[in-house]
Amino acid sequence: KVIDAMIKSSFCQACNLWNNKKDDNIAKYNEWYEIHEETCSRNHEGSAGKMEIDAVTEMFVRSKEKHGVLYVKYIGDGDSKTFRGILNVDPYAEDEITVIKKECVGHVEKRMGTRLRNAKKHNKGIGGKGAGKLTDKMIGELTTYYGLAIRRHPDSVEEMRKAIWATYYHKSSSDNKPQHQNCPPGEESWCKWSKAEAEGTLASFHHANPPLTDQVLEIIKPIYEDLSSDELLERCLGAETQNNNESLNSLIWTFAPKHLHVGVKVVEIATFLAVIIFNKGFMPILKVMNVMGVNIGQQAMMYANSRNEARITRSERRSTNFSRDQRMNRREERSALQDFYEQEEGPLYGPG
User: Fold this and answer.
1) Model pTM score
2) Locations of Basic and acidic residues compositional bias (predicted)?
């Protein structure tokens, strides 16, 4: 649930118009600005990159007075500037509470994909055709499994690390050298070797896919070591994400698309409407319209109800295991197709 939001702007159209003529009559400008100041849409001084830092720190500072709550956690995306800004203002010093940083699992997962793609780019020969190569499809699988390892063990750093390395060794296993010691045991295991072991059918079991080559394993091992460190995994405890925040942002941009220039007032209205829908659905929008003097008919009520039901149905459908597996399969198919094109066509573009 959204309990606070802040809109920052470094531009005011009225001030911009006055800037071109205020030197001609500074007294008149000062008189005008004294009246205008309270409604001026410019509420940020500094670079655009500092907007997020200032907005977040201001919301932390006013949380106790405005809402009677303390934000004890900050879920970040890897950029530490905003978190440093919070620590610098120390909003809850009198309560002897220090805000702690948690990592967004989604962004941490993306780091694995980025690191693996960079490794493939800078180490010629580990990608491309051939058994055990670091293909785009393999990168997608390793990235997804890394994220799942964190999400499935939100309460234990050791269990997270074990699950992360399970993937590495699982992908390095062969019939001659199985390395499934970290894979979950039992008949319900995702690991087919562990499942066969539990069922007593190891004698007839064969690995369907060849292991990653020794060269690939040597190159990606430091990546696994970095992304399974105590420091990082401790910040991943709880398996927190920024999904809700990104969902709200997406809703805001449906009212005020990014590719269209609008003033701060439009962004404010878009934000407030998005918060209402995000928190309570579409019915409160009818109340807003009623306050504005719009008569609400039966059709409007039916439409709001249908939109709410559609949101709930879509959310429930997307949360099912089957739906998640389908999305994962589609991503892997796209990745495999892209990998095929790259190998068939060869390098078509490069620097220089």
Assistant:
1) 0.77
2) 309-336
